[in-house]
Amino acid sequence: MPTRPGLISADHKAAGGKLLRVRMTISDDTPPLIQTLHITGDFFMHPEEAIEDLEQLLIGAPLDETALRERVQTFFDGDVQVVGADVDDVVAALLKAA
Amino acid sequence: MAKQEWRLLLTGDMSAFDNMALDEAVLRCVVAGTSPSTLRFYGWKPSAVSIGYFQGIEQEVDLDVCREKGVDVIRRLTGGGAVFHEHGSEITYSLAIKDDYPGIPRKVLDSYTLLCGGLVAGFRRLGLDAEFKPINDILVNGKKISGNAQTRRFGGILQHGTLLCDVNPHLMFSLLKVPSEKIRDKLIAGVEERVTSIRREMGTVDKDAVIEAMCAGFAEVLQIKLVPGPLTAEELTLAERLKEERYANPAWTYKR
Fold first, then answer.
1. Within a domain: residue A1?
2. Interchain CB distance below 8 Å, A42 and B55
3. Quick check: is A80 in a domain?
4. Is B152 at the interface with chain A, CB within 8 A?
5. Which residues 18-77 in chain B show a CB within 8 A of chain A?
6. Which domain holds residue A71?
7. Does residue A76 fall inside a structural domain?
């Protein structure tokens, strides 16, 4: 994966039309690790503050599809309702930035 | 079963900060049991851009242009997208109920279908061919006329949304960040194609008649009786505090 360390970002349009935007800094490891992460966009999440839990859960994760999917799935399996984006959308947005 | 009595609140035009603070204050008082379930209608003065809870303000809004044009910018308690609330061009509603209100689906998506059903019934009373389009839109003749957003907090449900009276995509996209001028033109054309307004559909806008129709629509769909009532002193005091602590506070507005 020819990813340079530093600040990377991507926008991903979910199937329902909502936009997921990710901005993150990544390390120069192989694969790179997520150091900071902001997920923004016009989706819905209940409770809203859970977005910070999702971001925290992904910090330290390698930018690798299996590892990301496992963490995002754990979050979605919790007591949270995300409307307008699903596990695949979040993973796709993260990988698109890489 | 006797129909539930709800309060109908008509608060007229207010600033974005007062409007959003009042929505939250009413929700909190409904949950506390000091205010009844409430349906409110309001407008915006001055015009404002509201962004969804999860949006990055710098990513979405051209703050310099907003300042220049005297347009307020505010972060909502609800998710969803950026909305331009033009003074005079929109009727906004909010409804606040407890989260265990009888018959409200636990799934947010399903509850949009139910609650937006009140608006669909209202538009139909105005003779318009309205339908709910998931996730959170209402269409008339296949074009968007209303966007809606919900939050569930503090033990309650707050849903608010717009009823578009006039649409001004040129002004709207001058206030929002877009990747390029070419894309700006495309976005404006997209809104002209996919968004409609009460004026476009009816030839005229009689706001009182629209509000009356929406009230009848909600009363029909939710089997409620709407009784006009005032804001309480508790709500006004709480709203002042919420305005200061949250909605007019840069720490909130710029948090993402």
1. no
2. yes
3. yes
4. yes
5. 52-56, 59, 77
6. 6-97
7. yes
